[in-house]
Amino acid sequence: FAEGRAWCSKDLTTFLWLLQAAAGILCYVGAYVFITYDDYDHFFEDVYTLIPAVIIIAVGTLLFIIGLIGCCATIRESRCGLATFVIILLLVFITEVVVVVLGYIYRAKVEDEVDHSIRKVYNGYNGTNPDAASRAIDYVQRQLRCCGIHNYSDWENTVWFKQTKNNSVPLSCCKAALSNCTGSLTRPMDLYSEGCEALVVKKLQEIMMYVIWAALAFAAIQLLGMLCASIVLCRRSRDPAYELLIAGGTYA
Questions:
Q1: In a domain, 51, yes or no
Q2: Which residues does 198 contact at the CB level (< 8 Å), separation at least 6?
Q3: What angle do CA 201, 53, 46 make, to 5 degrees?
Q4: Which of 28, 113, 180, 209 sits in a 20 to 30 Å window from 96, CA-based?
Q5: Total structural domains within the chain
Q6: pLDDT for 175-221, tens place per residue?
Q7: Does residue 142 sit within a domain?
Q8: Where does the chain cross the membrane (predicted)?
C-alpha cells in the first residue's frame, strides 16, 4: 500500500507539471483560433462563433492558477488545498465539456453563416480602392487557391465586374505559378477553378475541431489528475499510515 500511496503522490506531482504545460497549449490554441478567424471574419456575422475560443483561453489561464494551487497543496500536504484543487479542477472539466458541445454546435452553423454572408462580401468588392472586405477576399483567394463563390464565373454577377467591363476577375484568382496572368476570363486555365465557399467552410470547421480536440484531450488529463488528487486526499484523511509515510516515519 505504501508503494501505491507514494506512486499516486508522485503521479499527482507529475500531473501538476503537465497542467502547467496544458495551460500554455490551451492559450496557444485559443489565440490561434482568434488570429485565424480574423482573416475570415467577413465571411460570417455570428460573433458567438468565437465563444469556444474565448472559453478555452480563459480555461488555459485558470489551469495555470490551478496548477499553482495544486503545487502548494501537495508540498504542504494541505487537505483543504487538495480539496479546493479537486473542486476547481472538476469545474474546469465541466467547462471543457461545455466547450466541446459549443464547438460542435458552432461547427455545424459555420456553413449556414458563410453561405449567408459570402455573396454580400463578394458584391461589395472594390478592386480600385480595396476596403477591408476586399482585402479579405483577395487574401482568401490567394491563401486557399480558389476563385469566386462556387467558381470563377461567379465574378460575372458582381458589381465590380460589371463596372470594370474588362471581362476579368481579380488577380488574386490567378494561379500562383503564373507570372503573366491578367485575370482574363478568355484564359480560364490561368485561374483557380475551385470556388471559395466550400474551402472557407472547411477551413473554419477545421479550426473549430482544433478547439474540440484540445478540450477533449485536456479533459481526459484532468480526469486522471482529479482521480489521483482524490486518492491522495482520501488516504491522507483516513489512513494514519499515510501520515507517517509523508512524515518519513514507520507504522507499527
A1: no
A2: 150
A3: 50
A4: 113
A5: 1
A6: 988 888 999 999 999 999 999 999 988 888 888 888 888 888 777 77
A7: yes
A8: 12-35, 47-70, 82-106, 207-234
Q: Residue 31 corresponds to which cell in the numbers above?
A: 489565440
Decide: pTM greater than 0.85. no
Domain assignment of residue 21, yes or no: no
Q: Which amino acid is at 204?
A: L
Q: Which domain holds residue 129?
A: 115-251
- pLDDT digit string, tens, across residues 103-156: 788 777 777 878 878 888 888 888 766 677 788 899 899 999 999 999 999 999
Does residue 26 sit within a domain? no
Query: Helix 196-238 crosses helix 51-76 at what angle (to 10 degrees)?
Result: 20
